[in-house]
Sequence to fold (117 residues):
Amino acid sequence: MSSSIQRFDVGARMSEMAVHNGTVYLAGQIAEDGSQDITGQTQQVLAAIDALLARAGSDKSKILRAQIFIKDLADFAAMNAVWEAWVVPGHTPPRATVKADLAKPEWKIEIVVTAAV
Fold:
């Protein structure tokens, strides 16, 4: 018997999060306010991740993997400063950062995480 899948904020195109077998899968998170710089957008994205993980009964110390898509590699150091202040020391997850053209021109960053419950 397979365990059930819980989906959160289900829309016509995608869900914001799914939980299956004790693992939380988040959709790519982007900033609500695209007018902010990379620091502000990264803070918004990480706050959204915190909120979603909390809804699933998890938190950032349980992130198994992070994928970061960044529009401009010139923003890499500033993004890392926000990231390093946010992650839990000793619980930093495996991570990849990729330069990418994002779906909307004002978006500077999108982050996808997978976490344990």
In short: The beta strands are 6-10, 15-20, 23-26, 63-70, 95-99, 109-116. The chain is about 25% helix and 30% strand. The radius of gyration is 14 Å.
